[in-house]
Amino acid sequence: MEILQPADTGAYPAMAGKSSKLAQSVGMNKILIVGPSWVGDTMLMQPMLWRLKQLHPDCKIDVLAPPWTESLLRAMPEVSDVIINPFPHGVLQLLERYRFGKKLSHEQYDHAIVLPNSYKSALVPFFAGIPVRTGFVGEFRYKLLNDARKLDKEVMPLMVQRFAHLAENTGVTIVRPLSDPRLEISPAQRDATLSKLGLDLDKPVAVFCPGAEFGPAKRWPVPYFAEIAQRLQRNGYQVWLIGSSKDSEIAENIIALGNSGGRNLCGSTDLLDAIALLSCAQLVISNDSGLMHLAAALNRPMLALFGSSSPQFTPPLSGQAHILKLDIKCSPCFKRECPLGHFNCMRQLTPAMVWGKLTTLLPGLMENDNDHAATPAQRNIQSL
Question: What is the CATH number of the domain that holds 13?
């Protein structure tokens, strides 16, 4: 990680003995994971799934998850089945959760691992009568979880470590180092996606991920992306912009700033298509987003740009990933929008800083690519 200047824990003692005896007396043949709501967090739980398979080689792992993560989960060989979580974020629907849990009781799960820390997320395993229910203490979940672990954030600063810890028996520390999440895609899948979208690999590919579902405080400015896109295209790269339909306007604005040769693919792909496109990249430039974690899992060369969030919690886990973040007092704030109104954590992370890093990562890029008249992107940068 490059920081730039601006230009082993167990269950609570009262529960530890009880949860250990439960884990020993119940075979772990069928496990239900209550999965995260975010794509990136879903990718980060894969090392936990690997560990469960190491500990219980014949176990069947199902994941209760929102519909937008289903295709990613089905691409993970550790997952047997995906059960769609029908409950909207932030809505209790207690009676509906009770009925849903009772319906799941027929599956006869031996163990549930609840990854979200909310009260609501622990209700379904409780109503389903799953014998061992593991998760971190939070939101008064003591009665819902009978294997409640206390989180030591200093021992486990990374989300991937916290997830992996829940795969271990009570009182057992995680195995370090953890394996990085990994995704693979077949040449046939890749070629089908390229054909569907009318793309080719005649030139090296730079993939931009300019969105961030969490909010604008995590998004590098549009004119900055546009400036880097122009420089890459002058160096022989084709530029693809990917994301959800919510990111399409951002991508269009990048293209409008002198990047008519770029391809706005935001909203034109499903998650598996996005994985296929990322697998083609010689370079990925991404905000802190779910797509950043997918690119890392594909082990693509990547520059990850952090503003309001922290790479000390959810970094891209790949030796090919490089992080740029400004060392300023107010960051990370973990807010959806800049609470101070200046957005300096991203505004002061300039295209010159990013281009300087890219020239060290990609041999052959022109170090000083400024011998051109002012472009629309540069004029917009000056107005920021």
Answer: 3.40.50.2000
The DSSP symbol for 11 reads: B
Whole-structure pTM value: 0.89
Long-range contacts of 261-266 (CB under 8 A, 24+ apart): 261/233, 262/229, 262/233, 262/238, 263/199, 263/238, 263/239, 265/197, 265/240, 265/241, 266/211, 266/241, 266/242
Residues 6+ apart with CB under 8 A from 8: 152, 155, 156, 165, 173, 174
Q: Which two tokens stand for residue 223?
A: 């004119």
> Does residue 377 have a pLDDT over 80?
no
Which tokens go with 225? 């992306």
The C-alpha atoms of residue 147 and residue 157 are separated, in whole angstroms, by 21
- Sequence-separated (6 or more) residues with CB below 8 Å from residue 54: none
Asked if 322 and 361 touch (Cβ cutoff 8 Å), the reply is: yes
Residue 157 domain boundaries? 8-165
Averaged pLDDT for residues 37-60: 96
Residue with token string 């951002």 = 250
Q: Any idea how long the chain is?
A: 384
Give the pLDDT score at 367.
Answer: 67
Any domain includes 149: yes
- 95 and 200 in a single domain? The answer is no
d(CA 383, CA 39): 34
Q: pLDDT digit string (tens) for 301-323?
A: 999 999 999 999 999 999 999 99
325 residue type, one letter = K
Same domain, 194 and 114: no
What domain count does the chain have?
A: 2
CA distances from 279 to 16, 25, 181, 204, 272 (A): 44, 44, 15, 12, 11
- 347 falls within a domain: yes
Does residue 201 share a domain with residue 129?
A: no
| Residues 274/293, Cβ–Cβ less than 8 Å | no
Q: Which residue has the tokens 């046939």?
A: 188
Q: In terms of pLDDT, which residue wins out, 43 or 7?
A: 43
Could you please report the per-residue DSSP string of 49-97?
A: HHHHHHHSTT-EEEEEE-GGGHHHHHTSTT--EEEE--SPTT---HHHH
**What pLDDT is recorded for position 7?**
43
> pLDDT category, 9, cuts 50, 70, 90?
very low
